[in-house]
Design a protein that fits this description.
The complex is a heterodimer of chains A (222) and B (293). Chain A is built from three helices and eight strands. Chain A is an alpha+beta fold. In chain B, helix 1 crosses helix 7 and helix 2 crosses helix 3. Classes of the chains: A alpha+beta (222), B alpha+beta (293).
Chain lengths: 222, 293
């Protein structure tokens, strides 16, 4: 935890999609470590470092809302494309957006606030110029000033995340009293192992008084 | 063309009079409502569709301004164009092994398609052209005050089928329904990342086009359902630094939309029932504000 950071994030809506319910998206109860990592990376990231989320503080009561939107249905069967390729022409590949529309519901979170506690580690791509102080400084400076590489989001890009650095000497914001006690959130996505064929890793998330301890990636279940 | 070098945020205020700005497929096309506050909602994708439509109208066949997510478009035809243009063999469902070629494909798509360059696109269908994350990001728009949708019953002086005509015996009428909001002023927030623009080549010209489309998109989206919609105010925050000089939420907080005094309890029916103010004094250093509309 030597190079730890604490970032307060919040937003009106969020959707951390459960992989088992992604056609009609249903969000997890809370932010996943991988989404939290994405938010940190939106502020500062270099190939030399890897963000590791240590703890997630849930600040607001968990509430859901449902939303249905017109979306494009997605993939065209590969066979149609192969056929068209053989024929050397593409005009038979008819794929109209408005004919190929799906109405999909999403069960999303409302009014969320979290504190992400995280630190970074160096990857094999780090060199001598990559001192912990440098990256920590960049992150702190950017998050203090509201700077970011791109606007971080709460699961989907249409749900932007406001963020604020919690300085080392400052207290954490208080969690809502409804979150007192222990709650088992079941198995949750930890992150995806991109080095090994994009294998998802899960962990058993328990929330104690609003705080979820995130195990190191190595201790998770593939 | 070189990419933009400043980060931007914007607040767009638009209103609807006797219309339905965005129907909810879950609620029989009733205007979308936030169930907790009864504020009206318009999704990000709804607004992005209108931007695309505006750009398609303004730029028609201009090179570099094709629209990828077209109504009546053939997605994979577009991908194929990219492959053809740089002479790569199409390999089903995969990015070309050669990373440079893959980049070339994506770059070609960005160069030719305005919406790919602006909003990004996932091009992983049948013929794969990679995935692009665009610089322009929008959030849901919600109305300033709670809105009350009304159901208007209408009649049509004809029926569709003979059978219906039989049934109605010379009284050839069908009843229909329209859902409208008498008045609603909506506020949308948007973000433009200079760093992502760098990767897709989103230029200053494109930025101007975005402003134009935000201002004019409703002028070309008239229909029976929409009623009267118009963009009322477009406030743009420009950061000196590409990464930004201030948190977005601080900037958004400086834009206040209030009811005009003395009429607090009456329903708003016109834009003049609201007062919009930007607290320019409170803006952090390095951020300039501009009212484009």
């Amino acid at each position: 935890m030597a190079y730890g950071v604490r970032l307060h994030i919040w937003g009106e809506r969020a959707c951390f999609t459960r992989p088992e319910m992604k056609v009609e998206r249903v969000s997890y109860d809370v932010i996943t470590p991988s989404a939290a990592r994405g938010i940190l990376e939106a502020i500062h990231w270099k190939p030399a470092i890897r963000w590791c989320v240590d703890r997630i503080h849930v600040l607001k009561p968990i509430r859901f809302e449902s939303l249905r939107r017109n979306e494009v249905a997605g993939k065209l069967p590969a066979s149609t494309v192969t056929k068209a390729m053989k024929a050397g022409r593409v005009d038979d590949v008819a794929y109209y957006v408005d004919k190929n529309r799906q109405q999909r519901a999403a069960t999303i979170l409302r009014d969320v606030g979290y504190v992400i506690e995280a630190h970074f580690e160096f990857t094999s791509r780090a060199d001598e110029s990559d001192t912990p102080g440098k990256h920590l400084d960049i992150f702190n400076r950017r998050s203090r000033q509201g700077q970011c590489f791109h606007m971080p989001c709460l699961g989907n890009r249409e749900f932007p995340a406001a963020f604020e650095l919690i300085e080392t000497e400052d207290e954490l914001p208080l969690a809502d009293s409804q979150l007192r006690g222990e709650r088992d959130l079941g198995y949750m996505l930890h992150d995806i192992d991109f080095a090994n064929g994009k294998t998802p890793h899960f962990f058993r998330a328990t929330m104690q008084d609003g705080v979820i301890k995130v195990p190191p990636f190595e201790e998770t279940l593939a | 063309m070189s990419a933009i070098t400043n980060r931007y945020e914007f607040v767009l205020l638009f209103d609807v009079t006797n219309g339905n700005p965005n129907g909810d497929p879950d609620a029989g096309n009733l205007p979308r409502l936030d169930p907790e506050t009864n504020q009206g909602l318009v999704t990000d994708v709804c607004l992005k569709r209108k931007i695309r439509n505006y750009v398609a109208l303004e730029k028609e066949e201009d090179a570099g301004y094709a629209i990828y997510m077209q109504e009546k478009a053939v997605l994979n035809q577009q991908h194929k164009k990219a492959y053809d243009a740089i002479g790569v063999e199409v390999e089903k469902g995969k990015l070309p092994k050669d990373e440079a070629k893959a980049r070339e494909l994506t770059a070609w798509m960005c160069r030719n398609f305005f919406d790919v360059r602006t909003f990004g696109a996932v091009m992983t269908t049948g013929v794969n052209s990679g995935q692009v994350r665009g610089p322009v990001q929008m959030a849901f728009a919600s109305s300033i005050d709670p809105v009350v949708p009304m159901e208007i019953s209408i009649t049509r002086m004809a029926v569709t089928t003979d059978a219906e005509a039989e049934k109605q015996r010379g009284d050839n009428r069908t009843m229909g329904r329209k859902h409208i909001i008498p008045y609603g002023l909506y506020r949308a927030h948007g973000y433009i990342s200079a760093k992502l623009a760098e990767r897709t080549g989103f230029s200053d010209d494109d930025l101007d086009l975005i402003w134009r489309s935000l201002i004019n998109m409703f002028e070309h989206d008239r229909s029976a359902a929409r009623g009267e919609m118009s963009s009322r105010k477009l406030i743009v925050f420009k950061h000196d630094h590409p990464m930004g000089n201030a948190p977005a939420h601080v900037l958004f907080d400086s834009v206040k939309v209030e009811r005009v005094e003395g009429e607090e309890d009456t329903p708003a029916r016109h834009y003049s029932d609201y007062r919009v103010s930007v607290d320019a004094e409170a803006l952090p250093a390095g951020v300039s504000v501009e009212e484009k509309l």
